[in-house]
Amino acid sequence: MKPAFAFLLIPALASCAAEPDEDGEPTAEAVEAASEGPRAVVEAYYRAVSAREYDTAWQLWGEDPEAEPEEFAAFTEGFETTEIALAEVDEAGTERSRNSWIYVEVPVRVEDLKSDGSGNSYKGTYTLRRPAYDEEAWELHEGNLEITG
After folding, report:
1. Which residues pair with 102 in a beta bridge?
2. What's the whole-model pTM score?
3. Biggest alpha carbon–alpha carbon distance for the chain
């Protein structure tokens, strides 16, 4: 489940969205971050969206931009008023197992700047998961951020 708040956090213009890799294959950035661990996935997510590489950002949620074009379009459109977002990503918490998945929470603090000059601060966590059998397949699962200022 992708959080609605994520649409407010990072810069974007839907018309600038990067094209998905050929054949629906994950981008190299998404694959590398997934193999490096939960914190790397969150950091890669913010880098990807800030660079308007929405295919990579969407893939970090475990999604294929070509498989769900309408959801992907809504995802990219959600960033149109945010010019920049800076994230401070903390260390991942303790892993827990449930239904053949391993889950972990990663604390994050975000500052954003909107195109109208306004901005917000957010604090919360992302929950990431991976299949129990694959230590290099981390993906974003859900987010829980609240506006703090």
Report:
1. 97, 130
2. 0.81
3. 46
